[in-house]
Write a structure and sequence with these properties.
- The structure is a single chain.
- The protein is mostly helical and 529 residues long.
- It folds into 4 domains: 33 residues, no CATH class; 42 residues, no CATH class; 172 residues, no CATH class; 262 residues, Fido-like domain (Fic-like fold, Orthogonal Bundle).
- Helix content is 50%, strand content 8%.
- A 3-stranded antiparallel beta sheet has the order 1-2-3, with no helix packed on it. Strands 4-6-5 form a 3-stranded mixed beta sheet, with no helix packed on it. A two-stranded antiparallel sheet has the order 7-8.
- α12 packs across α21 and α15 packs parallel to α19.
- The longest helix is centred in the middle third of the chain and has 25 residues.
- It is globular.
- The termini are far apart.
């Protein structure tokens, strides 16, 4: 055996320590060759990825050669500065299909595909690193955003109209330190921009902010732009709902909720309109009998839609009150069985509440949640802490863009949903669709939100004299995508069309059955467009 074959090599910094196999130590200090740029790039990337450092300031950037390799390998995106959405200040972390950011490297605009269906649009704008603040997204990831003063000094008309709802909700509650505003407006002296936002703040009853912005505009220019020039009231329509809101009331997220529900209610009126009056309504006796007949079918589909795996035969037997088959049961089967059992109990609770037309409120929601998960808690599958109330931690939905709200907002948002559902002038179709959609948007529990949302929808339908509606598990993907489109892209039309079609179909089927005719043959349901 050669001497070299008996050696062990240990690398320490730039030095090589060689130890012989017979225990005698031979130290030879050798200057090690520098790592190649690709090796340095991969090491740099791993160090920052392991530390969850996804945004790196210029001071921590690698050498030019390493940075070039990182870009070539697709390991980094070079963005000199980032301008965040106002929605990040509102702690809304759901990414749209097109994410707007700003870069100060040059005067070009870029579109960077991140993932299929996602693109980052980089627009030129100088963003000093010292002006960046950070907000924490779920998981503790820091996202750089401009300060409020820097945003109001540079927010142009196009950006305002692109996000009129979050911009309005933000401005109505915004408080800025006067020194910060003076500094930002001095560095970016745009009197028309400040006057435009002053007009908006005034329309939103945020008088202190309106006076601050107006004073900042007057420091820059003695010529004050009238509303006809700033566009407020003409090109820029401040939501009337917020203009009517008393000063000091609500919160940015409850304002966004109110605007969202008003917009979605308008979309329902446009799509459903007078057709709702053509639906047949039924006696409670007919509705209850029909619901009892579809109970097993609905329990199976609503539960397996959420990822539980169980056969239709076992699911139906559980709904009938029969025990599980003899023999040991694995945890997955037991989880599914308890989920079916809980759904069956919650289904019965909906029938009892709908008969007396109980309101959609916190008591109803928590009682149905208790029914849904009590079997799982009693079986030791789910922690009993789950039954204490609203979730107290952030949650993400694997595979979907939507990020549910921070838990601190849940109480306000549930209150907003209660007030909306209690409105006397709200149509039954509008109430049923939006109670469902808004509940799953709030996502107040760690689990069970989808099933509970569909139960609440059917509670409203039964209370209005309309039959139970089942959404099949094989419709999961188009149905969930329609919900996501409403939540992230602000387009509830696919969701409205999807569920409205099922409501019509259920009513027609029950009408045919009552008149002695056979229900329409089941056909593939129309997908939302």
């Amino acid at each position: 055996m050669s001497v070299l074959e008996t050696l062990k090599y240990h690398f320490y910094a730039k030095w090589l320590i060689i130890i012989t196999g017979n225990g005698q130590t031979l130290l030879r200090i050798l200057a090690m060759p520098r790592q190649s740029p690709i090796e340095q790039a991969r090491r740099w990337w791993k160090e920052h990825a392991d530390a969850d450092h996804y945004v790196v300031p210029p001071a921590a950037a690698p050498s030019a050669a390493v940075a070039r390799v990182l870009r070539q390998e697709g390991l980094v995106m070079d963005v000199a500065g980032k301008r965040a959405w106002i929605k990040l200040h509102l702690e809304d972390f759901s990414p749209p299909e097109e994410l707007l950011a700003h870069q100060s490297a040059n005067q070009s605009e870029y579109g960077l595909p991140l993932e299929p269906g996602f693109i980052m649009r980089l627009r030129p704008r100088d963003v000093p690193a010292g002006r960046l603040h950070f907000v924490y997204a779920p998981g503790g990831v820091k996202i750089p955003v401009l300060s409020a003063a820097d945003i109001v000094s540079t927010l142009d008309e196009r950006e305002i109209n692109a996000g009129i709802e979050p911009v309005s909700a933000w401005l109505r509650h915004l408080v800025i330190r006067t020194p910060d505003l003076e500094r930002a407006s001095t560095e970016k002296p745009r009197a028309a921009t400040l006057q435009r936002l002053a007009d908006m703040a005034g329309a939103l009853n945020n008088d202190p902010l309106a006076r601050q912005l107006d004073a900042a505009a007057r420091r820059i220019s003695a010529r004050i732009s009238p509303p006809s020039r700033t566009g407020v009231g003409t090109r820029i329509q401040v939501p009337p709902l917020l203009q009517r809101a008393p000063r000091g009331s609500g919160s940015p997220w409850s304002d966004e909720q109110a605007m969202r529900l008003a917009r979605q209610e308008s979309e329902i009126r446009d799509l459903v309109g007078a057709q709702a009056k053509t639906l047949s309504t039924f006696s409670w006796r007919t509705l209850r009998a029909s619901a009892e007949q579809v109970k097993a079918y609905d329990a199976y589909h609503s539960t397996t839609m959420e990822g539980y795996r169980i056969s239709r035969e076992i699911s139906d037997a559980i709904v009938r009150g029969e025990p599980l088959p003899d023999g040991p049961q694995d945890r997955e089967t037991l989880q599914a069985a308890m989920a079916i059992q809980g759904y069956s109990i919650a289904f019965n609770e909906v029938l009892a509440r709908a008969q007396r037309k109980a309101p959609v409120d916190t008591d109803l929601i928590l009682d149905l949640y208790e029914a849904l998960f009590r079997p799982s808690v009693d079986a030791g599958i789910t922690d009993s802490a789950a039954l204490r109330g609203w979730r107290n931690s952030s949650v993400g939905l694997r595979g979907w863009r939507y990020v549910p709200p921070n838990p601190k907002k849940i109480q306000d948002l549930i209150g907003g949903l209660e007030r909306f559902a209690a409105r006397k002038d709200l149509s039954p179709i509008g109430r049923s669709l939006l109670v469902h959609l808004e509940f799953v948007t709030i996502h107040p529990f760690m689990d069970g939100n989808g099933r509970l949302g569909r139960l609440l929808m059917n509670h409203v339908l039964l209370s209005a004299g309309l039959p139970w509606v089942t959404i099949r598990s094989d419709e999961r993907v188009p149905f969930f995508k329609a919900i996501e489109q409403a939540q992230v892209d602000g387009d509830a039309v696919p969701f409205i069309r999807f569920v409205w079609h099922l409501i019509q179909q259920s009513a027609m089927d029950l009408q045919r059955k009552r008149s002695g005719r056979k229900p329409a043959r089941k056909t593939p349901r129309r997908r939302p467009v």
